Amino acid sequence: MSSDNSTSEMMKHYADADESSRLRHGWFQLEQARTQELILRHLPPPPATVVDAGGGAGAYACWLAARGYQVHLIDPVPKHVEQARAASARQSHSPLASAEVGDARHLPFADGSADVVLLLGPLYHLVEREDRLACLREAHRVLRPGGMAWGAGISHFASLLDSLAHGFFDDPMFAPILARDLEDGQHRNPTDNPIYFTDAYFHRPGELSCDFLGAGFQVVEIVAIEGPGWLARDFDRLWSDPAQRERVLAAVRKVEREPSILGASSHIMAIGRK
Ligand SMILES: C[S@@+](CC[C@H](N)C(=O)[O-])C[C@H]1O[C@@H](n2cnc3c(N)ncnc32)[C@H](O)[C@@H]1O
């Protein structure tokens, strides 16, 4: 399937899916907590300029703007940009610097103009490696020397673990999707079930490092975002108890760099320096 077809599949997917509320539900709350933790670990102090390319409805962009950063969000889905603008308007003392429709492969920013680039979406939505590299090269171009990029990938093994843990392994409609994921990492969803996501590329952890290195970054860290925590039975019960939530986070942190378990995370984060 061409990347143009994949882009139109993605547009159809997000017409139905609600990105503006996703991170408030189930294990996505772990994704958000850990993503924030991994960003804060290497983030320069404010004021600094952040480009959130693939920023969706603005969850991380607005969070960073509220912490004093100058944040520019771009996303190819107009609905997401509208949602990000609305979220920005709700924090009138710390709005986004800008929110525009755009593509991470062609960033509308000058060379060396950003301190931070977030790519929390484009690297799995772009199914061709050349497109993923184009987007990482753009991130590299707009960063100042020493600037940092965060790139999220979805694990090559995510569909296997998700289907086993969350009860759809035996759906005959899912079997061919899983088989292809495990074969070549190319995720395609010909069903109309949005739970099975949309066209995407699912990385092995080492491939994500290679992509960053290929675009000229030094790799600072490759870490699991959720680790095995997203597979927890009764996730909501654990997460709603503050002590158990801390135990989940501590356990995930403990194994976040363990090579033998990295691929068990739903998402993997590469952090690179220009
Ligand atoms: C699952 S959402 C994640 C949104 C947000 N970054 C987060 O982590 O919650 C993935 C986002 O990547 C965006 N995206 C996909 N392809 C892109 C591209 N080529 N350039 C920029 N953004 C892209 C999608 O429109 C979508 O908003």
Which molecules are bound besides the chains? S-adenosylmethionine
Contiguous helical run count: 12
Distance between the termini: 33 Å
Spell out the helices and strands N to C: HHHEHEHEEHHEHHEEHEHHE
**Largest sheet at a glance?**
9 strands, mixed
The average pLDDT score comes to 96
Beta-strand portion reads 15-25%
> How much helix, percentage-wise, in residues?
40-55%
Number of strands: 9
- Structural shape: globular
Which regions contain 5 or more consecutive residues with pLDDT less than 50?
Answer: none
Radius of gyration: 18 Å
Which structural class best describes the helix and strand composition? alpha/beta
Q: Can you walk through the features of this model?
A:
Strand 1, helix 4 and strand 2 form a beta-alpha-beta unit. With 274 residues, this protein is an alpha/beta fold. Strands 1, 2, 3, 4, 5, 6, 7, 8 and 9 form a nine-stranded mixed beta sheet that branches. The model has no long low-confidence stretch (mean pLDDT 96). Bound molecules: S-adenosylmethionine. S-adenosylmethionine binds next to helix 1 and helix 6.
